[in-house]
Predict the structure.
Amino acid sequence: MFSFFYFLLPSILRLPFWLVSPFGFIIRHHVRSLKGLLIPEIERRIAALDSGDEREFALINALLTSKPKPMNARQIEQCAEELCFMTFEGVGPMTLLLMQLMYEIISKPAYLDDLRNEISTALQESGGWSDEALKLMPKLESFTRETLRLNGPAPCKFADKPPIASSPNANTTASNETQSQ
């Protein structure tokens, strides 16, 4: 809703709207809170990376390894802002994909038990969600690929099947048959 109003305004009014609107205040408040949580974690990860103890692969580590060392307080704050932006950008497509997968599995209940059993077995064998667990889920991978191939994620789905287009030959044949009778 905020972005709808924000982009309706002329560019000269956008900054005042951002500063005085309740939406802008709420967004700024949450970003400040999130940065308050992220900055200590970024500092911890920097120390772990510098000492060679950090082996976990995560978005935050990839971001930190691309930054020049040493980082001052302003650079760490910018890193937190970039991390927020990348996270919010990444959530959109994943949300659409998960919604599409849930829609597909609900509309095709025959696949539900097989997928549920495969996922449960793989998670038990691998001890939780991991790359190894995903390798043990070929049916889930196949279901996801087919869902994306046939019905890619989209914010709106208007019809399950496209309308059947009639060929010009079919109309001509039908009209010829009508004329001959």
Summary: DSSP finds nine helices and no strands in the chain. Residues 127 and 133 are 8 Å apart (CA to CA). Residues 170-181 have pLDDT under 50 and may be disordered.
